[in-house]
Amino acid sequence: MPELQALLDLLYRKHKPARGGTLASYIPELAKADPNRFALASCGVDGSRAGAGDLNARFTLQSVSKPFVFGLALAAHGRKRVREEVGVEPTGESFHSVIRLDADRKRPYNPMINPGAIAMAGLIPGGTPARRQTALLKGLSVFAGRPLSINDKVFRSERSTGHRNRAIAHLMRHFGSIPGEIEHTLDLYFKQCATAVDCRDLALMGATLANGGVNPVTGKRALPARFVRDLLTLMFTCGLYTYAGEWAYTVGLPAKSGVSGAILAVVPGKMGVAAFSPRVDAHGNSVRGLKALREFSARRNLHVFEAR
Ligand code: GLU
What we know:
alpha+beta; Beta-lactamase; five-stranded antiparallel beta sheet; three-stranded antiparallel beta sheet; 11 helices; 45% helix; binds glutamic acid
């Protein structure tokens, strides 16, 4: 798709000079990222690829892992069981908000904020920590079409400083969720966040969702088709932290961002498109990534509610 390549080249050149935002530093290892990195990549449901910028730069998924692990939990346990642990209401709050659990059922509001995401990590099956880690990495790797691994430095950095997530997990245990050893589930959550990808991997993960759960390059099914809409709905309503409503209104695509500077958007039935640039704004979203994807959607008329 040559015109897509030309558009990504253009958006790369146009938004590269943007200097706003800062590196996330509450996970010390993330503050060591090269702030100038910038990459854009797309992958169609026919497997066609385009990309511009630092396509070989690796980064960690951070919160972009959340919809995928929600998917792994759904595939393992079904919708009914998963919905016992987590709601589907947007909160309009930041990703690490501790305080609000669903007033009636004491469940986290949704799987895109940390309490819900930690509950989903708690549902990854396997019995032992090692088997659960294997299930996590295997599951994510089918989306990416290659064996993914964990950035151990980022994992250790978050594990040794993740007091807020630890507090969230213990509060949830107080209300009866997260069975088993809490530290094991927290480790798994920190590992899903520390899973390393590049921008092309991320675009292919999105293309797999756009393609009904089948990886368009390998032909392997990553997610039962019936759960794809669950992920895309939550990405649409809750994917960009406290900017989710603004994003849905202006860009109009299911998407998920992470504090590493990654953003993944999905054009259902068409493609995945990913951006990576580590400087994030006050909401926690990549500054260049937002600008580039906003323009990508507008130029190609991709808002899902656009009258066509
Ligand atoms: N590992 C990060 C945390 O739990 C993920 C945050 C994010 O990307 O939003 O704090």
